[in-house]
Amino acid sequence: MSSVQEQQVLEALTRVMDPDLHRNIVSLGFIKNMQIQGGEVSFTLELTTPACPVKEQLKQQSIDVVAAIPGVTKVQVQLTAQVRATQHKVATDLLPAVKNVIAVASGKGGVGKSTTAVNLAVALSQSGASVGILDADIYGPSLPRMLNIAGKPAQSEETGKLLPPVAHGMKVMSMGFFMEEDTPVVWRGPMVGMAVEQLLRDVDWGELDYLVIDLPPGTGDAQLTLTQKVPITGVIIVSTPQDVALSDVKKGINMFKKVDVPILGIIENMSYFLCPSCGHRSEIFSHGGALREAVAAGMNFLGHIPLDTTICENADAGTPIVVALPDSPQTAVYRQIAAKVAAQVATRQFEAKQFPTIITE
Asked: Are residues 108 and 20 in the same domain?
């Protein structure tokens, strides 16, 4: 019996397709470190994100097609991930070591944007990615309470930059660390933009796969500062189902289009309420409005998040529900959305056109 050849294995693996990138895993360069000893084949399957929603599916398909090769007696596949960096460039990049910046926005306040941002960030971190989260809501910072962090951050003796505290595996920064909880911020617009820039420039974020930025509601100075100073990979828009919230979503969509920031998708928060006693479902704020808006705008719909007291209670207690109740159905929803977001980011990195090299003589 002839020994198994590497070319045979690679040819077999071309039958395994990435459902998001619509290409086989060999042409995508996912196969690494192949070793063949007699009939035993081993290799690494390097994906674009540790939060890949189909990683186990791709692994099993890889094992199946290689095991079907005559002469193969054993197949071992190791899963790893290498997150790619955003190709988009800005005039001044304040975060050169951050691969992807994901902004979470809303057209109006009170839609659960910050709770959504925190749980998505933690879900990405739990997948194995290096993650940071920035509270860019200068007037109403909420991350210190939601992550149970208090006190001013330490300062690096070497660089003079602030060292972000770590919570649930994430680096965290917020204006709330520098003020009393009940102290109002009475600033004009330009000062807000300067504060956001400082939270980017003067913080030692280090190398991150994803920096999630919790934006203030609406369309204003914080949003404009970010689009000018950092390469935003994409924005997630959070809304509740009712018409008054969706009308503001349209404004947010139009603003991000004007500043050329891709929209990764729309989330419908407080989509429905399930009675914990009887299981009756009540659509308090209507239902499906965000999905219809996403379809009308030609955008991705990322998912429905229920109105649930346990989500609110854990947020108020300083422990995100994905940490407090990791096996709950609510946590499963956040993880599914985080996986969709990671897949969207990875797809955009592969589809992004390389910037031309400009040569001056």
From this structure: no
